[in-house]
Amino acid sequence: MAASRDSFENEEAEGSEGSQASSGVQVVLPSDPSAPAPLCPHGPTLLFVKMSQGKQETRKFYACSACRDRKDCNFFQWEDEKLSEARLAAREAQNQRCRPPLSRAHCVERYLMFIELPLVQRKFCQSCQQLLLPDDWGEHREHIVLADVSIAQLRRPSRLLFPLENKKTNAQYLFADRSCQFLVDLVSALGFRRVLCVGTPRLHELIRLAASGEKKSNIKSLLLDIDFRYSQFYLEDSFCRYNMFNHHFFDGKDALEVCRAFLQEEKGEGVIMVTDPPFGGLVEPLAITFRKLIAMWKEGQSQDDSHKELPIFWIFPYFFESRICQFFPSFCMLDYQVDYDNHALYKHGKTGRKQSPVRIFTNIPPSKIILPAEEGYRFCPLCQRYVSLENQHCEHCNACTSKDGRKWKHCFLCKKCVKPSWNHCSTCSQCAVPDHSCAHPKSGCFICGELDHKRSTCPNVGIVKRANK
């Protein structure tokens, strides 16, 4: 699951977190953490604050956790705003209207009826993205209907459903078969028996296909995804509708307990989480959610195993490395380039700046992960990990330093390797893109205005927070 690459060039150069961070919008903790956040159709909202360069925090507001564009979810409420009973009732009515047309139990009931139908009666409405029972046919007579839906097609719902390609909301860029098969093979080679698929529907499909195939893989999978359409194709123990930006299970406690049981099965042994969040989302709420899933997994661990970590593959663009490692210091980034079927730019085999920027971040030691030599990866004995062919070991940095698949160059003034297209700027005293503007820096601290650090590491952050209380 990914988002637009339209702004990737700027994000990469500035090290920003997407349009929200580059405009100064940050996620913050509410003044009263015990008070429940107001609800929108996507579950509990998040608290944001808009920062201005060199100025203190402004008024805080609640907004949708999943949608960055208010055209997709127009929820907005000031943190200190008191709402009338009429407005609260209108909001609840709006949330009810936005719910899926069928309940989870109803979807399961229909699915079980659908698979019992003879092939000639199995139909799928492409206009409504819905499996049809015979009683539904009349309502969909004027729609585009796919007939003779096979069991094999039902096992690959991501190929039946149209991807949601709203770039700012639920952009679904699905793994290409190459990357998906690599992940399945890697999970198997590492000895995992269960995979929690968070926003990775195609990986979930492939794991289940392998389990039902001739070789009968023993790997099980549970899919957590915000797309309610998958409710039509899976029983309750295979799919939970879930918002990864606020750890919200749409079907309540029953779905949460399904996830808990899956993570804690076999005392938590043999499970890995693989997640592919929308790239337009902020890292911080994702990290908070993943920590909650980790805590859920740890509940099934004994105190002697408290030092263990839930194995994770977090798939995200390489220029978020420092931000991800800030929340998960044990993570490292693999050189493997993940590509997607329905995105023109995320394609394996492209060169230079056209290569996919998507990588795998993991807390599994990279020395244990073998990348395919036939796809252009080699083992570096000095780094003790697999790297891309163009990623040459730098004797000055004592590391294979490239992040984007190209050969990087060492800058002795910066004392580090940089992208081959970057030049050292004497005005900025650092390497930057050739056409950057020294007069109007695009990054820095929103609290004090200094350019050598971000807001999260500002020495004045404590002063500002105390002043705002």
Walkthrough of the structure:
The protein is an alpha+beta fold and about 475 residues long. It has an 8-stranded mixed β-sheet, sandwiched between helices. A 4-stranded antiparallel β-sheet has the order 1-4-5-6. The protein has 4 domains: about 10-95, no CATH class; about 105-155, Double Stranded RNA Binding Domain, CATH 3.30.160; about 175-355, 3-Layer(aba) Sandwich (Rossmann fold), CATH 3.40.50; about 410-469, no CATH class. The protein is globular, with a radius of gyration of 24 Å. The protein is built from 12 helices and 25 strands. About 25% of the residues lie in helices and about 20% in strands. The chain has helices spanning about 10-15, 20, 85-95, 105-115, 150-155, 155-160, 175-190, 200-210, 250-265, 285-300, 320-325, 460-469, and strands at about 25, 40, 45, 45-50, 60-65, 75-80, 125, 130, 145, 195-200, 220-225, 240-245, 250, 270-275, 310-315, 330-335, 360, 375-380, 385-390, 395, 400, 410, 415-420, 425, 430. Helix 10 links the parallel strand 14 (about 270-275) and strand 15 (about 310-315).
